[in-house]
Amino acid sequence: MPVSLQPDTLSYKSTVFDFAFHPTQDIIATGLITGHISCVRYVPGLGNNQPLWSVRPSKKSCRGLAFSHDGAGLFTVSKDGAIGALDVNTGAVLIKKPEAHDDPINAIKLLTENILATGDDSGTIKLWDVRTGNETMQYTEHDDFISDFDYDTDSKTLVASSGQGTISIYDIRKPTMLAMSANQDDELLSICIVKDRRKVVVGSQEGVLNIYSWGDWGDCTDRFIGHPNSIDTICKIDEDTVATGSSDGIIRVIDILPNKFQGIVGEHEDFPIECIKVSHDKTYLASSSHDDTVRFWDVRYLTGDREENEDDSQEAQEVTGDNEKDSSDDEAGPSGDMDVDSDDSDAPKKSNRRPKKQAPAPTNAAFFDDL
């Protein structure tokens, strides 16, 4: 196994609301409550991170970030309901669509090369064609904040979790919702598709992982109890394993079906975890917290043993196959600091209205050209 050498912690002077990994390069973008957005090239070792740029396109808090598929652009959403696009090389503001939502936007995810999903504090979900900037779909079934998204490419299905205690399911080609789960009487804060689209894992305010069977959306079919505090963020390590970030400041690894606590990746002392995501090459898991930092954790060990076992199994099968053939033949066969002079009076309330999301989206000169 490679020697563990993690990039240095990124420290700021205000809360990191969201961050996103570049889809192909060792670059991370962070969005702060002050409205500042920065890009850093992360490099293993203390003091090796390389700040690329920092801008403040809005005085309102940056609620979410999503890289384009080609990595050339960075989409942003903010408390004032605006959607923007930045040039990843320079940080220049390419486009800003003000009042894209009537309420603060809380969730963002690029679903396809050309479709961006956004969800706001009132429960409205909108889909946007990034080539034209036009809204293509709007769903209004929720009456409380949209906390998180995940998306299945093969079935073109978007799943969303909400503060009203339900998850909703959409075929993004259709104007109406496919299904909504029963109310769990608990705020649902994070969501992740696992088990090759057979299961959906949802984190709750009470610290329960609710597990839904794909297509059986009425109620969860299994529950994993054990987190002492809310599960604010989830990311997938592989199809059988997720990492969870909790308000107790601990990042845990959980095996799904059979449900098993595997261990702790790291922690931010007693500060709640805002967001966790895995880098493009699955070398690092990064986490942001109310301690105003983004920390990196080497997680190659989480998949190394499994990959080695798979390789061994494949080799064994090949050997077996060769032996069978032979036998047959025989027979006949940076850290960078920011100013905190925001006019955003919404200090992040620990709990729910956190952004997150991970995503990508291609920057296009025609993006939002209706403006």
From TrEMBL:
<dbReference type="InterPro" id="IPR050505">
    <property type="entry name" value="WDR55/POC1"/>
</dbReference>
<dbReference type="InterPro" id="IPR036322">
    <property type="entry name" value="WD40_repeat_dom_sf"/>
</dbReference>
<dbReference type="InterPro" id="IPR001680">
    <property type="entry name" value="WD40_rpt"/>
</dbReference>
<keyword id="KW-0853">WD repeat</keyword>
<dbReference type="InterPro" id="IPR019775">
    <property type="entry name" value="WD40_repeat_CS"/>
</dbReference>
<feature type="compositionally biased region" description="Acidic residues">
    <location>
        <begin position="327"/>
        <end position="345"/>
    </location>
</feature>
<dbReference type="InterPro" id="IPR020472">
    <property type="entry name" value="WD40_PAC1"/>
</dbReference>
<dbReference type="InterPro" id="IPR015943">
    <property type="entry name" value="WD40/YVTN_repeat-like_dom_sf"/>
</dbReference>
<comment type="similarity">
    <text>Belongs to the WD repeat WDR55 family.</text>
</comment>
<keyword id="KW-0677">Repeat</keyword>
<feature type="region of interest" description="Disordered">
    <location>
        <begin position="305"/>
        <end position="371"/>
    </location>
</feature>
<protein>
    <recommendedName>
        <fullName>WD repeat-containing protein JIP5</fullName>
    </recommendedName>
</protein>
<feature type="repeat" description="WD">
    <location>
        <begin position="273"/>
        <end position="300"/>
    </location>
</feature>
<dbReference type="Pfam" id="PF24796">
    <property type="entry name" value="WDR55"/>
</dbReference>
<feature type="repeat" description="WD">
    <location>
        <begin position="98"/>
        <end position="138"/>
    </location>
</feature>
<feature type="repeat" description="WD">
    <location>
        <begin position="139"/>
        <end position="180"/>
    </location>
</feature>
